[in-house]
Automatic annotation (TrEMBL):
<dbReference type="Pfam" id="PF01554">
    <property type="entry name" value="MatE"/>
</dbReference>
<feature type="transmembrane region" description="Helical">
    <location>
        <begin position="313"/>
        <end position="335"/>
    </location>
</feature>
<dbReference type="InterPro" id="IPR047135">
    <property type="entry name" value="YsiQ"/>
</dbReference>
<feature type="transmembrane region" description="Helical">
    <location>
        <begin position="9"/>
        <end position="28"/>
    </location>
</feature>
<feature type="transmembrane region" description="Helical">
    <location>
        <begin position="162"/>
        <end position="183"/>
    </location>
</feature>
<keyword id="KW-0813">Transport</keyword>
<dbReference type="InterPro" id="IPR002528">
    <property type="entry name" value="MATE_fam"/>
</dbReference>
<keyword id="KW-0812">Transmembrane</keyword>
<dbReference type="GO" id="GO:0042910">
    <property type="term" value="F:xenobiotic transmembrane transporter activity"/>
</dbReference>
<dbReference type="GO" id="GO:0015297">
    <property type="term" value="F:antiporter activity"/>
</dbReference>
<keyword id="KW-1133">Transmembrane helix</keyword>
<feature type="transmembrane region" description="Helical">
    <location>
        <begin position="53"/>
        <end position="74"/>
    </location>
</feature>
<feature type="transmembrane region" description="Helical">
    <location>
        <begin position="189"/>
        <end position="213"/>
    </location>
</feature>
<feature type="transmembrane region" description="Helical">
    <location>
        <begin position="86"/>
        <end position="109"/>
    </location>
</feature>
<protein>
    <submittedName>
        <fullName>Multidrug transporter MatE</fullName>
    </submittedName>
</protein>
<dbReference type="InterPro" id="IPR048279">
    <property type="entry name" value="MdtK-like"/>
</dbReference>
<keyword id="KW-1003">Cell membrane</keyword>
Length: 464
C-alpha cells in the first residue's frame, strides 16, 4: 500500500503555496509601508523599527514552533503520525503562553523599550502608540506562526496561503479606510494602521485554528491541549533550542544594527526600511524554495531516504540561486524608480539607490546560506547552524558594522558590507558541513531500521 502523502512532499508542490503566502506577507508589509508613507516618513521609520522589535520577540516562541515543525515532517516520514499530532498540540499550547507574556510586556512599556533601543526622541510618541497596539497582539503572531508551521509541515502548504490571502485583503481595506477616512472609517493614521494589523491577524487566527484542529487523522479536541508528553517535548527542544538561538542571533543583531542606523539619522532609518521592503520581494521565491526544501528533506530523512535528502539540498540551491540573481538584477535596474513610489524625499531615495548594487551581491549569499542552513536544520544538525550564527552574526554583522558604519563613518555602505560578509561566511561554512554529510552518514548506518518495508498496518494512523 503506497503512502499517498508522499506526493505532498515534492519541492514544487510544497514551494508554490509558500511563495504565494510569503508574497502576500510581503504585500502586507509593502502596502503598510506605502500607505504609512502617506502619513509621514517618520511613521515609516517607526513601523520599520517596530517590526524589528517584534521579530526579536518572535524568537521566544519560534524556538518551539520551528523545532516542532521539523519533527512533525520527520515523524510523518517515518509513519509516526500519532506522535506528530501530539507534537503539534503541545507546540501551540506552549507558544500561546509565551505569546501572552510578550503581549503584556509590549503593551505595558512601549516607549521605554523604544527609548532603550535608541529610537530618536521625536519618534517615541508614535512608537509608543504603534508598539502598544500591535505588540499587545503578539499572542496572535505566536498562534499564527505556530499553526502555520505545523500545518505546512504536514504537507498542507495551501491552507496557510489561503488564510494569508484573506488576511491581506482585509488588512489593505482597513488600512485604506483608517489612513484616508474612507468607507466610513475614522481617519486615525498610524493608530488605525495598528488596529487594522491586529484585527486582520485575529481573523486569521480563527481560520488557522479551524484548519489546525483538522490537520491530522483525528480531529484535535479542546481537552487535548492539557496533554504534555515530556519525552516528545524533549525532542522538540533538542532540535528547537539551537534554532531559537540561531533566530535570536539574527533578529537581535538586526535590531542592534537598526539602532546603529537610527544614530545615523531618521533619513537613513527610513531608507533602510524602504530597502528592506524591496529586498524582501527580491528574495521571496528563493526563501520559499529554501523553506519547502527543509520540509521535503525532513520528510525524506525521517523516511530513511538519505541520498534523496542529500541531493534535494543542491537542487533547491540551484533553482533558488537562478531566481534570486534575476530578481536582484531587476531591482538593481528599476530600484530607484521603485523607491520613488514610497517617498518623494530625494535624500532618502539617494541613500536607498546607493545600496542597490550591494544588494546584487548580497542576494546570492543569502540563498546559499538559507538553502544549506535549512537543509542542515531539517536533519537535526541545528547546533552547527547555531554555532556559526553566534560567531558570524555577532562579530561580522554587528561588531564590524559598528566599526565600519558608525565609528569609521562609512554609514549604510559599511553596514551593508558587513551584512554581505556575514551571509557568505555562514553560507560557505554550511556548504562544507552539508558536503561532509556527518549527520546523513550517521543516519545511513541505521537505515535498515528506519527505511524497512512498510506494511499496510504501519501506514494506518495511530490514535494519539
Amino acid at each position: 500500500m503506497l503512502d499517498k502523502s508522499v506526493n505532498k512532499f515534492t519541492l514544487w508542490v510544497l514551494a508554490w503555496p509558500i511563495f504565494i503566502e510569503l508574497f502576500l506577507q510581503f504585500l502586507l508589509g509593502a502596502v503598510d509601508t506605502l500607505m504609512v508613507s502617506r502619513i509621514s516618513d517618520d511613521a515609516v521609520a517607526v513601523v520599520g523599527f517596530s517590526n524589528q522589535l517584534f521579530q526579536a520577540m518572535t524568537t521566544l516562541f519560534m524556538t518551539v514552533a520551528s523545532g516542532a515543525g521539523i519533527l512533525i515532517a520527520q515523524k510523518i516520514g517515518s509513519h509516526k503520525r500519532g506522535e506528530a499530532r501530539t507534537i503539534g498540540i503541545m507546540a501551540l499550547s506552549v507558544t500561546t503562553i509565551i505569546g501572552l507574556v510578550c503581549s503584556v510586556i509590549l503593551f505595558a512599556m512601549p516607549e521605554a523599550i523604544a527609548s532603550i533601543l535608541q529610537l530618536p526622541d521625536r519618534l517615541l510618541p508614535l512608537a509608543g502608540t504603534y508598539i502598544s497596539i500591535v505588540g499587545g497582539g503578539m499572542v496572535l503572531i505566536a498562534m499564527m506562526a505556530t499553526m502555520s508551521t505545523v500545518i505546512r509541515n504536514t504537507g498542507n502548504t495551501r491552507a496557510p496561503m489561503y488564510v494569508a490571502i484573506g488576511m491581506n485583503i482585509i488588512h489593505v481595506i482597513m488600512n485604506y479606510g483608517f489612513i484616508f477616512g474612507a468607507f466610513g472609517f475614522p481617519q486615525w493614521g498610524l493608530t488605525g494602521v495598528a488596529i487594522s494589523t491586529v484585527v486582520s491577524r485575529l481573523l486569521a487566527v480563527f481560520l488557522l485554528l479551524y484548519i489546525f484542529l483538522r490537520s491530522f487523522e483525528y480531529r484535535i479536541k479542546w481537552k487535548e491541549f492539557r496533554v504534555f508528553n515530556r519525552p516528545l517535548f524533549g525532542e522538540i527542544l533538542k532540535i528547537g533550542w539551537p534554532l531559537g538561538i540561531n533566530m535570536s542571533c539574527w533578529v537581535f543583531t538586526q535590531l542592534i544594527i537598526y539602532s546603529f542606523i537610527a544614530t545615523l539619522g531618521a533619513a537613513e532609518l527610513a531608507a533602510r526600511t524602504y530597502m528592506n521592503t524591496l529586498e524582501s520581494f527580491c528574495f521571496l521565491l528563493g526563501s520559499s524554495i529554501a523553506m519547502a526544501a527543509q520540509i521535503q528533506i525532513a520528510h525524506l530523512f525521517g523516511a530513511g531516504k538519505i541520498k534523496d535528502a542529500y541531493r534535494s539540498a543542491y537542487r533547491a540551491l540551484g533553482i533558488g540561486a537562478i531566481y534570486v540573481i534575476v530578481n536582484a538584477f531587476l531591482l538593481f535596474v528599476f530600484g530607484k524608480q521603485l523607491l520613488g513610489l514610497f517617498t518623494e524625499d530625494k535624500t532618502i531615495i539617494a541613500i536607498g539607490a546607493s545600496l542597490l548594487g550591494m544588494n546584487l551581491i548580497l542576494q546570492p549569499g543569502k540563498m546559499l546560506n538559507m538553502a544549506l542552513g535549512n537543509s542542515l536544520n531539517a536533519i537535526g544538525d541545528t547546533r552547527f547552524t547555531m554555532y556559526i550564527s553566534l560567531g558570524s552574526m555577532w562579530l561580522v554583522a554587528t561588531v564590524l558594522s559598528y566599526v565600519l558604519g558608525v565609528h569609521m563613518g562609512w554609514g549604510l555602505i559599511g553596514i551593508y558590507s558587513c551584512m554581505i560578509a556575514d551571509e557568505y561566511l555562514r553560507g560557505v561554512l554550511s556548504f562544507f558541513r552539508w558536503r561532509g554529510q556527518k549527520y546523513l552518514r550517521k543516519a545511513e548506518q541505521h537505515e535498515p531500521s528506519v527505511s524497512h518495508q512498510i506494511t499496510p498496518m504501519e501506514v494506518m494512523p495511530t490514535q494519539a
